[in-house]
């Protein structure tokens, strides 16, 4: 990978060329603009991903539009961006690393891209304003603490494609009263600090019998 450079179109946006992947990796951001549209092409190469913790703790950042050709967000991509309210994903995004949006306390709504198959560990942990999440059919796995502490989340539709959800994925989601899966509805159980046991049993049963 080549040396880090600054993208001239956005002050503080740094990148490197990944020869292995034949594309551009956004490595860090040290600017103060509240809105960023990450470019599709830099140095005649597609922008395909971010590095570890690229936008970590950039509290001035409020809105981000990611390029359509971006394939991955590395872990901690936007962790602790306390001012972030809006993220627009590209349609070709295939992977979002663990804790990428943890503690983004102002995000209210997220639409997961259609090519994502795993909602990784702590992805939206402590996103206390998150009240709407759209999970596409094709997601098979939701890892531990993915939605831990999402106290504003009241309902969620689980797609039929799901194969496994860690029982601690929804820890602390105390307002979660409507978890919909294959026509049945489940809710948060204060005694176990997660969704009803019957919900996890139903997932196991359908995947064993269908």
What do these coordinates show?
- By secondary structure, this protein is mainly beta.
- It has one domain: Leucine-rich repeat, LRR (right-handed beta-alpha superhelix), CATH 3.80.10.10.
- 6% of the residues lie in helices and 30% in strands.
- The chain is built from one helix and 20 strands.
- The strands form seven sheets. It has a five-stranded mixed beta sheet with strand order 1-2-3-6-5, with no helix packed on it. The chain has a three-stranded parallel beta sheet with strand order 4-7-9, with no helix packed on it. A three-stranded parallel beta sheet has the order 12-14-16.
- A hairpin with a 4-residue loop joins strand 19 and strand 20 (194-195).
What would you call the structural class? mainly beta
Largest sheet: 5 strands, mixed
Number of domains: 1
Low-confidence stretches are none
Helix percentage range: under 10%
Mean pLDDT, all residues: 96
In angstroms, what is the radius of gyration?
18 Å
What is the CATH topology assignment?
Leucine-rich repeat, LRR (right-handed beta-alpha superhelix)
Give the spatial strand order of the biggest sheet.
1-2-3-6-5
How do the SSEs run, as a string of H and E? EEEEEEEEEEEEEEEEEEEEH
Task: Describe the protein's topology.
Blueprint: E1 5-6, E2 13-18, E3 23-29, E4 35-37, E5 41-42, E6 45-50, E7 63-65, E8 72-73, E9 86-88, E10 95-96, E11 109-111, E12 118-119, E13 132-134, E14 141-142, E15 155-158, E16 164-165, E17 178-181, E18 184-186, E19 188-189, E20 194-195, H1 197-209
Parallel strand pairs: 3-6, 4-7, 7-9, 8-10, 11-13, 12-14, 14-16, 15-17
Antiparallel strand pairs: 1-2, 2-3, 5-6, 17-18, 19-20
């Amino acid at each position: 990978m080549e040396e880090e450079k600054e993208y001239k179109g956005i002050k503080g946006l740094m990148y490197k060329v990944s020869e292995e992947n034949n594309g551009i990796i956004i490595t860090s951001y040290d600017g103060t603009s509240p809105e960023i549209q990450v470019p599709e092409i830099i140095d005649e190469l597609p922008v395909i991903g971010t590095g570890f913790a690229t936008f970590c703790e950039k509290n001035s950042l409020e809105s981000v539009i990611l390029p359509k050709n971006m394939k991955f967000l590395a872990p901690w991509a936007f962790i602790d961006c306390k001012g972030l309210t809006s993220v627009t994903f590209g349609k070709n995004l295939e992977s979002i690393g663990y804790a990428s949006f943890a503690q983004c306390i102002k995000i209210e709504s997220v639409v997961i891209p259609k090519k994502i198959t795993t909602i990784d560990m702590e992805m939206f942990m402590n996103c206390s304003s998150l009240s709407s999440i759209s999970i596409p059919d094709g997601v098979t796995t939701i890892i531990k603490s993915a939605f831990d502490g999402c106290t504003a989340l009241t309902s969620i539709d689980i797609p039929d494609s799901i194969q496994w959800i860690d029982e601690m994925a929804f820890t602390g989601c105390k307002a979660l009263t409507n978890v919909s899966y294959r026509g049945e509805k489940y809710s948060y159980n204060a005694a176990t600090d997660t969704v009803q046991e019957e919900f996890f049993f139903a997932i196991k049963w359908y995947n064993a019998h269908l």
